[in-house]
Amino acid sequence: MSDIIVNLKRRPAGEIRVAPSLLAADFAHFGSDVASAIEAGADWLHFDIMDGHFVPNLSFSADLVRAVRPAQSGVPFDVHLMVERPEDYIGAFADAGANLITIHPESTVHLQRNLAMIRAHGCRAGVALNPATTPEVLRYVLPDIDLVLVMTVNPGFGGQKFLPVAGKKVAELDRIRQETESGYLISVDGGVDAGVAAQLSQDGADVLVAGSSVFHHPMGVTEGVSALRNSVRQ
Length: 234
Description:
Layout: E1 17-20, H1 30-39, E2 45-50, H2 62-68, E3 77-82, H3 90-96, E4 100-103, H4 111-120, E5 124-129, E6 147-151, H5 166-180, E7 185-189, H6 194-203, E8 207-210, H7 212-215, H8 221-233
Parallel strand pairs: 1-8, 2-3, 3-4, 4-5, 5-6, 6-7, 7-8
Helix pairs in contact: 2-3, 5-6, 6-8
């Protein structure tokens, strides 16, 4: 289990955390792409975990997280479980080096129990909201949440187009956060690029998860990360 402390304090206006989604990395040069993202100034690394059941695709296992951890010992690992029965996976990913584990409310009948399990394993706990999932599902688990991940595409595949209506959900979550004096961060995942980064930040987003716009940027990974930050600062 990693002992990295994930800083959950909100940053000043004009600043954002960038979490490159490794699903978009070049698998033939995976370690090199991971290193390039960190050298470019990425704050977190985002791992999309898919089981082929909850979403129609398969991706990384806990073994990959464990393999990357030694080379990135000081970097927060943000693990997004798009799986059925997340309780069967939480311990393995925590032991592999995850620092923050996010689950979907539709994936389990015991959401609060799973969030408590994540924290019991020494990780921060997050809830992911699909495009059609309302923030209302969070009402009675707010004390158990460190992060809310707003999906701006339907989960399961990288490279999808951003759904503009998701920005309204980010603003709603920011309003709820202020009204309830909650401390969760708001993260956004799906089709995030420099064209939408500034508005998402203004709506209240704290973390931008970006795959294609970072790893497939025509000028390289460094420019991909810089483009997101510059958009928000401007």
